[in-house]
Design a protein that fits this description.
By secondary structure, the chain is mainly alpha-helical. It folds into two domains: 102 residues, Orthogonal Bundle (Arc Repressor Mutant, subunit A); 73 residues, Helix Hairpins (Orthogonal Bundle). Helices cover 66% and strands 5% of the residues. It has nine helices and three strands; from the N terminus they run αααβααββαααα. A hairpin with a 6-residue loop joins β2 and β3. α6 packs antiparallel against α7. The N terminus and C terminus are likely disordered.
Length: 198
């Protein structure tokens, strides 16, 4: 409780202690990685994504990622390769050296939504092939596959709408000053919830 009050005073004063900032970054990376892992993804990937979300620079070296995410240097290359496939990161040329830097787009979530379409269509086609090649399946099994096929088809059909709404939401949000931190916080929990804010 006292720590929360201290944080509020620091926010009011416009000053944030560097140690507190680094401690929060570490905590953020750890919590993000735990959620990422709970969705069946490698924890190391989650630590890298979590670090990139709160990194101070647009692009960072593999060494900086390893240090900031607290993962081994050897695991960075493998994880970044997978994260590139998922659309979470890109590699950019470092103007000061021959190496490439790791970057995360500001709208990685919108990009993820765009890239998800390929996954949906692959799953839809997989269900269709099972329905075609396994005609003797029982009614329950065919219903499961038909629901899989129809769900992927239905969700794919909404992608354009979802992306359009997302761009509209960002544009509306962009009309604010971007500094109303208190307005972004949900009442009671101290966490902002976009579904409960007016």
């Amino acid at each position: 409780m006292a720590q929360g009050a201290q944080g509020e005073r620091a926010l009011d004063a416009g000053v944030v202690d560097r140690d507190d900032t680094e401690e929060f970054r570490d905590d953020f990376v750890g919590r993000f990685a735990a959620y990422w892992q709970s969705q069946g993804r490698p924890k190391t990937e989650g630590r890298i994504v979590g670090f990139l979300l709160v990194a101070d620079r647009d692009a960072v070296s593999a060494e900086e990622v390893a240090e900031g995410a607290r993962v081994s240097r050897g695991s960075v290359s493998q994880s970044v390769r997978r994260l590139r496939e998922l659309g979470f990161v890109t590699l950019v040329e470092d103007p000061e050296s021959r190496s490439r830097l790791i970057s995360m787009d500001e709208d990685v979530w919108g990009g993820f939504l765009r890239n998800e379409r390929s996954y949906l269509r692959q799953q839809r086609d997989l269900a269709a092939s099972a329905l075609e090649r396994l005609p003797d399946l029982g009614e329950s099994s065919r219903n499961r596959l038909r629901n899989m096929y129809d769900y992927m088809t239905w969700l794919d059909g909404y992608h354009d709408v979802l992306l359009e709404r997302w761009e509209e939401y960002k544009a509306e949000r962009g009309r604010g000053t971007g500094t109303e931190l208190r307005a972004l916080r949900g009442k009671g929990s101290g966490a902002w919830n976009p579904y409960t804010e007016g």
